[in-house]
Amino acid sequence: MSRFISRLIKFLAIPAVIFAVIIIAFPATPRAKTSLLFSKLDKDRLVENTPSPRLILIGGSNLTFGIDSSMIKEELELNPINTAIHISIGLMFMMDDIIDEVRPGDILILSPEYHQFFGRNAYGGEELLRLVLDVDRSKIGLLDLNQWFNLLEFIPKYAISKNKPTEYIIKENPEIGIYERKSFNEYGDVYIHWAHKHSDFKPNKRIEGRFNDQVINELLAFEEKVNEKGATLYITYPGLQELTYQIYADHIKQVEEGLIENGFTMLGTPERYKMPELLMYNSPYHLNREGVEYRANLLIEDLRSAGVPNIE
Amino acid sequence: MNLGFLGYFKYFNFFLDNFIGLFSFFGQEISTRSLDIILPVGISFYTFQTLSYSIDVYNRKKTPTRDFIIYSAYVSFFPQLVAGPIERANRLLPQFQARRDFDYSKAVDGLRQILWGLFKKVVIADRCAEFANLIFDGAADYSGSTMILGAVFFAFQIYGDFSGYSDIAIGVTRLFGLDLMKNFAFPYFSRDIAEFWRRWHISLTTWFRDYLYIPLGGSRDGTWRTIRNIFIIFLVSGFWHGANWTFIAWGVLNALYFLPLMLLKINRTNIDNVAKGSIFPSLKDLSSIGLTFGLTVFAWIFFRAESLDHLSLILSEVFSQSIISVPYFFGRRKAFFILLWCFFCMVVEWIGRENEHALEKFGNNWKSTYRWIFYYGTMYTVWIYGGSEQQFIYFQF
Lengths: 312, 397
Prior knowledge:
The structure holds 2 protein chains of 2 kinds.
Chain A: H1 2-25, H2 30-33, H3 39-49, E1 54-59, H4 61-64, H5 69-76, E2 79-82, H6 91-99, E3 107-111, H7 126-135, H8 145-151, H9 155-161, H10 213-228, E4 232-236, E5 240-241, H11 242-261, E6 266-267, E7 274-275, H12 289-305
Chain B: H1 2-25, H2 43-58, H3 68-76, H4 89-97, H5 104-137, H6 144-175, H7 193-199, H8 202-213, H9 223-241, H10 245-263, H11 283-304, H12 308-318, H13 332-351, H14 368-385
């Protein structure tokens, strides 16, 4: 038995070492560098350079593909920054990442997808791993054990992806794809798809996992830090396809109750942000041009009702 | 009792729907609702496994065990619980009862078999499934030649899926120092249909032989009885796979394939491994293999079709002029690479065809470094192609 185990360890150690070397030594592949994850660098610059008064949008792709920040700028005379990229970056990382950049007077709008409140989704997935290893390694320190535990399963796939020849061959395409670094406008919204038609897609299945109370606790801690910095936090709901809304109904109710019971300042209701099929783009959280305008108007109305802008 | 559970869970709605259809045909409308029954995973497998124990005990071929734990382990042994091999009590119970010591060579061989099983499932079956599903689901839009290519993809899908699962189950069992029966013996190298059925899903075909064909009289009671018995086992075998007329049609077709060999008494011509001791097959063997594979691929169309209407749609394309056109479907370039992997799989299996499984002695005379490189390469390929997994086909049975 000991011979078997020692030989097995030796056999597995070789690829493990190779993976480790690839992860540590190899930079992001040329294909990875074109992906929407690399917009993080541009968004970080926006956060750094945008002057007050600022309105910072935080969330997953419901914001990336779901808002026209220029409308907010025009209507509310605030400088919007859409920091959202992908749901799988996880709510925990999103909050930890932005908090050091918050300035007095900032208005933070958090719009988490409903998934973030269930199971281990808030701790992030493959996109978070790629973000900290490919895009900005200085962010590795923001990850806690819970997040690393979630990311472990994606390490082999990540390491292998660096050996795929297709990762190094990029065909020049004059048309910008919707999931590229170049797909974003000056505020951080994906705008490329605004010219596209609605794509057919199926509604999502039920959300897996139990309600994660830890997410609420982390949100409370985040709100406290935001307040300490002299900024204000609002939480709003993602624009969600009506059919998927019906499937998620029980989960959405749990999220709404959890947020209201804990005294967060909410903008609107889940029902208000339920989106008819005509406003959808290619997934239950992604909106087309009309959807983006519709949602931006709802958010502007809700912000006004909440007394924003309240510039001193 | 065993068959009662199987009948209820798997066949209740089938019979109900067909009775309604039958009455409707004669102008009698019956208003009833079918039950929303969830089919337990692998019910056909463990039903047959427990059935064999009961029959053997009844026939006094097996002494009943008084050890509940051992019996429970036999019924619910996890590697083969949901998709076989369907083990016999005579083989497995004594192994549970005997003392076992760790066997290094058995464990290493088990790992090799698991690796090859994973390759067949992830690289061959799951990738072929993409194209088989694409073509079969859009049958109305494709030519006869494309449908045949779809059937070839399905042939590799079902082989990779089921034999891959069996390899994984047998390999895992070997890690525990136990042996399960061989379930596939390189069936696509068969030279006739009789040989194919001796090499495909061996645990099921031998089950039917021992508990159905022989008790019915086998081939001992004259020609008509033999023909009847052959049709019965192939019909039951088709029905075992699912409550759908397409499976029954598949069974009948195989019976028709098998019957001439039986009547001409040439069904046991090809008992030995093909091209034993040689590297290449003879031209005669090669043509026999090709013909048998062609017949099998045609039969898989019946197996894969969703319904009799779907089957007739596909057959109308296959037997039309479009059979001589160039196959055309989305993703042909990728499909070509998948076919290359199928070819690679067949080459490795050809080399290992005289062994228990393809990798048993593969590269034994190589330096261990080269052998490890081959294993790493296989693992790497499995990882590369992994990700969008498909459910094992035989879990539904």
